[in-house]
Amino acid sequence: MTKHNNMSRSWRRVAVNAQAWTPTAKEFAGAIARVQRDERERILRFRFIQDAKSSLVGRLLLRYLVQEELGVPNAEIELVREESGRPVLRCPEHVSQLRFNVSHAGSYVVMAADSEREIGVDVMDHRRPLHDDVERFFELMTTTFTPKEWDNIRRSDTHGTALLEFYRYWTLKESYIKAIGLGLRMDLQRLQFASDPRLSHAQDDLMAVVDGATCEVDGERLSDWTFEQCHLDPRHCVSVCVHRSPGSYRPQPFVIMDTAAVIDALAPLREDELDDPAVMGIFAQMKDKPQRQ
Question: Going from the N-terminus, what domains does the chain have, and what CATH number goes with each?
Answer without folding.
Answer: 7-115+250-285 (3.90.470.20), 118-243 (3.90.470.20)
